[in-house]
């Protein structure tokens, strides 16, 4: 096949078909494919993956795609490979963020706004970046959301059978300047990374009220962790909303995120935590992850758990212009705290419980069944796009604070008084031997059938199962989504293995306990949950299988 470039005087650009061998490990996990950079760099590795995606899409000729990235190491090289392969596969138009920067929520926004046929997101999200760290590829469909399991499974099957890929030989495209370029018959449009996304935020929230809040002296410390949200945060908070210069910390995206873990939690966002719990702390602290879809919310010397955050957003949604008429429903991933369920009950709306991973919310939002969604892993979002959205969550909180004229701590404490408090923690055991981790999960699954009615350290088990989900919209079934043990007193333990790691296995243990005694709303979470943490360790044989006495990360 030959493709002619625009002018008749231009030489024809030949599509080169390159012979290749399949890689056996291109199965996407919870959110895209994540691998160590050194694996991604193997000859033909990314090309095989991209061709598998094009082959599964089938319909490529004349179509348009969005190409996004979080700025990590190997993004720029990958962008050039992808563009040349897109041109060779007949794609007509690719929108790429300037310098390759386009956050995951911004990509979802652009896909939807311009009705493109999907997008490729070059990110390993919260995983560290750099030459000796991780790289990743997410594939989103035309709805703007992550490809569902049937699509990622098909991509995996294609990747195991691939024998060749298509690419054109052409000079690299300059993506540092906004504007249009030609690549054979394809147009490459370099777009402003922030513009479309910021416009969407302005259409959802009461920007004048938030501006007013900053004018009255409210202070925010936003830590972008040297990842993708820096340019967005500078533009939205400092330039548009009038927060003082210096509000945004670590706002320049770096290929290695400054050597840190771009994961917004109390462990990895330690600099922000120090500021928030130090002297002269700002009124609010916030952070986002590598690709901008996660958020952490802090008040002055106060941490808001992701489960509480989701519940507070749901309870206060009517204060936000875009949600003033109420919510269609809410949804949370299974391990996420049940705090939002209580709000849904009071609002008289349905709360859906899905497996871990944002892709499971897509159908619910498309079908108009849910407006807000959230995960315990610092992910919150709504039907404004089809990804979780870190800056959106921060703006939501700012808008609530502006409307209620109360501090973040006051808002959360009032929430607990009304609904009770769901004490919550997640314990991660990282770097576990893969075979041991599988064996532990299998033993747990076998145990589930025997636990009902039994007392574990004095607490009676109400149910125990291996969570399976039937999508209420398309009927698809997802099995083995984690083991849950529920107790008669409403407490809950969940075990599952991570699907985003790149070395060994990571066991996640989620522990939750409900408390509505007004005198017991101010306990330390780890202390309050210690019985159930001990039950979890004992029941799963964590020490035996992992050799670890304590988790590597507690959130
Ligand atoms: C983790 C989180 C999950 C989240 C996923 C992608 O998955 O637990 O809630 O959707 O990361 O987030 P796992 O399988 O490792 O538990 V992101 O911001 O890294 O794309
Ligand atoms: Co992310």
What is CATH's topology name of the largest domain? Alpha-D-Glucose-1,6-Bisphosphate, Chain A, domain 3
Distance between the termini: 54 Å
| Separate helix tally | 18
Which class of secondary structure composition applies to the elements? Answer: alpha+beta
Mean pLDDT: 95
Helical percentage: 25-40%
CATH superfamily of the largest domain: Alpha-D-Glucose-1,6-Bisphosphate, subunit A, domain 3
Low-confidence stretches: 1-10
Q: Report on the biggest sheet.
A: 7 strands, mixed
CATH class of the largest domain: Alpha Beta
Strand order across the largest sheet:
3-7-6-4-5-10-9
What's the β-strand tally?
28
Q: What is the count of distinct domains?
A: 3
Bound chemical compounds: alpha-D-glucose-1-phosphate-6-vanadate, cobalt (II) ion
**What is the rounded Rg?**
23 Å
Which CATH-level-2 architecture of the largest domain? 3-Layer(aba) Sandwich
Shape: globular
Which percent band covers the strand fraction?
Answer: 25-35%
